[in-house]
Amino acid sequence: MNQAVTRISLLRHGKLATDGLFCAHADEPLSKQGVKSLIVATEKGNWDVIVSSPHLRCKAFAEQLAEQKSCELHIEDSFKEMDFGRWTGVAMSTLWDNEAEQLQQLWQSPDDFMAPNGESMADFVARIHEGLQHIQQRYQHQSVLLITHAGVIRTILAKALGVSLLSAQKFAIDYASLTCLHHYSDGEYALQSLQQVKDLEDV
């Protein structure tokens, strides 16, 4: 007997207007290329509902797409970027020059990471898990597009695939990439596709 399934598509936002940032501020917009890549990534997709991070780089396109596809839209704080405190808005090169040891902890020992004047990894993971549970309950047996951030997607994949956060750090999540999961009524997940990226060269 086939189980009913909830389809969850995870879409990372597009390329930002400002290059080289470790983590952008919430009001950082997408570049023109970033918007174009999202249009291409979603042009053939159909969803019952769109859920988005409240950050502008996700929300602005989510609003546009929801209107275009005539589907329900919800903005959820659970799926916003990690609060990296004083690292927010700083260039990656600056952090490598000045705070390499603490930055490496994020990749080498993520469970123990605490952003400087920001959010702990434990709190970050907890709110994402809560948001994911909400999607599973509220949109059961529907098709959901979640527009969010690379770190959020890795955390969801760690939960869905039963792997550690350290292992999930190895997933490359490119701009405007789609990762698709099925969630079944018995609580299990299946990974349908990982990091699909449409080629813009001929668009």
Could you explain the architecture of this structure?
This protein is an alpha/beta fold. The chain has a single domain, classed as 3-Layer(aba) Sandwich (Rossmann fold), CATH 3.40.50. Helix content is 37%, strand content 18%. The chain has a six-stranded mixed sheet with strand order 3-2-4-1-5-6, sandwiched between helices. Helix 5 packs across helix 6. The longest helix has 18 residues. The relative contact order is 0.23.
Number of domains: 1
- Largest sheet descriptor: 6 strands, mixed
Any idea what the shape is? globular
Helix/strand/pairing class, anyone?
alpha/beta
- The topology string of helices and strands comes to EHEHEHHHEHHEE
Q: Which CATH architecture would you pick?
A: 3-Layer(aba) Sandwich
What CATH calls the topology is Rossmann fold
